[in-house]
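okkk here we go again. third time trying to get the NAP bound version out, last two times i messed up the smiles copy paste (missing a bracket lol). double checked this time i swear
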Amino acid sequence: MIGASAGLGRALAGVLAEAGHQLVITSRDVTDLDATAADLNLRTDGRVTAVPIDLRDFDPVEYRSRAIAELGGLDALFVTAGYSTQDDRGQVPDDLLQGIVGSNFTGVISLINAFLGDLRSNRAHLVATGSVAAVRARGSNSVYGASKHGLEFYCEAVRHHLSDTQSTVCLYRLGYVKTNLNFGQNLMFSAMEPAAAARQMVKGLGRRQGIVFLPKWWRLVGLALKLVPWPLYRRLDF
Ligand SMILES: NC(=O)c1ccc[n+]([C@@H]2O[C@H](COP(=O)([O-])OP(=O)(O)OC[C@H]3O[C@@H](n4cnc5c(N)ncnc54)[C@H](OP(=O)(O)O)[C@@H]3O)[C@@H](O)[C@H]2O)c1
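finally!!
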């Protein structure tokens, strides 16, 4: 579970640990991660080990070895880490750009790539988190949206690669979820509770879904956004 120290990832770790699963949980912040693992080990029947990495700078092969050594194999890989900032608008400093791409795209696909052999040889499931920001490009969240767009493309490629196996790939195009990611922002629509989103994602595990909106009604918003003609779209400030 990558991105498990907060928000949706922490909620997912909770749902899975409560169901008695063994987990390796990962994020950058060791303090938050250790606290999450300690809490889940105390409260649930799950066995949870914290393995911190920073997706912007890590060794994917070493990480995979450590995770497989802890777990003894792989049933599911949840990649829910992600980073966005309101400074991602127009021209952004290059280090910020690299950080957003690393946390949402290059680091994520390096990590998935390290587990591809496990996904092929076991009946295992890949679950990744995209965003409605990838539906149509806009002037704000532009590097984040581009990274999530790239992640969708890569997950589709992995789905194709694994299509002759029992393994599944699902990318959730998430609408708003009440987490740190959008704390204090004025959101256009209501936000889901992380625990509700986590329960739906666990329920969907193993279904051959591909790319799906969560909540489902965001599909209509996505469709509407795509249909807005450019002369009108260019005037929208969101
Ligand atoms: N919340 C929303 O409305 C929303 C909407 C659309 C899509 N999403 C997507 O949903 C997923 C979950 O986000 P969230 O809302 O739960 O956000 P969040 O509360 O900010 O949690 C993000 C998690 O990712 C980890 N993370 C961030 N950068 C990382 C890095 N470089 N290396 C390793 N771990 C990293 C964070 O831990 P550390 O900071 O300790 O590393 C944290 O555990 C993300 O992919 C996000 O893009 C969220």
